[in-house]
Amino acid sequence: VIKKAFEVKEVPTPNMRGGQGTGRQLQYFKAEEFSTPLAAFNVITMDPGVTVGFHKHEGSEEVYWILEGRAKVRDDDKVAELGPGDALLTLDQHSHSIENAGTSPLKLLAVLSNQVKK
Amino acid sequence: VIKKAFEVKEVPTPNMRGGQGTGRQLQYFKAEEFSTPLAAFNVITMDPGVTVGFHKHEGSEEVYWILEGRAKVRDDDKVAELGPGDALLTLDQHSHSIENAGTSPLKLLAVLSNQVKK
Question: How far is B22 from chain A (nearest CA, A)?
Fold first, then answer.
């Protein structure tokens, strides 16, 4: 299944997980398109001031991988600043939030997966 | 779990899936680090001449997402050229190969997931 970049439309997403402002998401693949418990493969753009609220993953996990810009993340009770090439893996039963920590757009890949291993 | 880019070491990987030459892989997370059936989150660099051989996914699926350079992919019986931002999703029971179709390094993200849904 090939998805060319130009075929993927950008969707405005206000108040992500209770966060501030409106992000934009390129939704490459949705849960029903995958044959395994992969549930999302999205590129998220967050202008300065946009945040994803702190939230817990229950029955899922997510990888954030920074593409452009600067991010301030909370990883459970730890806070860190990330840049391009840095990753945050939030396992089942763990929590995260992310905000733009710079003055230019923050762009990241978010990969979500369900069905926690026994 | 935070992985800074500088912490991820690049591993030379010869003859990927029976392909030609030696690729280089940044292995961000391995199967045992995930809490769901995610099995790999790797950035692969392929110099001109390097290929990943045509192979079938059985009990897994994989997303290739092009970061830099030009790729020629085979998606079952279809051939296509992909560039930055383009994606190839290879579902369970389907096959793919990829080669550098340009004159500069090809860089892509490869996300592998196991445990096919019933």
Answer: 22
Chain B residue closest in CA terms to A84: B5
Tokens of B60: 């897994």
Q: Which residues pair with A58 in a beta bridge?
A: none
Contacts of A75 in chain B (CB under 8 A): 1-2
* Strand ranges for chain A from DSSP E: 2-3, 10-14, 22-30, 38-46, 51-56, 60-68, 71-75, 78-82, 87-90, 95-100, 106-114
The amino acid at residue A57 is H
Model confidence at A118: pLDDT above 90: no
Dist. CA A108–CA B22, nearest whole Å: 28
Tokens for B50? 């390097």
In the structure, what pLDDT confidence band is assigned to residue B100 with cuts at 50, 70 and 90?
Answer: very high
Residues B35-58: tens digit of each pLDDT: 999 999 999 999 999 999 999 999
pTM beyond 0.90, yes or no: yes
Which of B35, B86, B115, B116 best probes binding to A when mutated, by most A CB atoms within 10 angstroms? B35
Task: Kindly provide the b/e burial profile for residues B80-111, where b requires at least 16 CB atoms within 10 angstroms of the residue's own CB.
Answer: eebbebbbbbbbbebebbbbbbeeebbbbbbb
Residue B115: closest C-alpha in chain A: A36
Residues in a beta bridge with A61? A113
Residues B7-38 have pLDDT tens digits of: 999 999 999 999 999 999 999 999 999 999 99
What whole-number distance in Å separates Cα of residue A33 and Cα of residue B118? Answer: 14
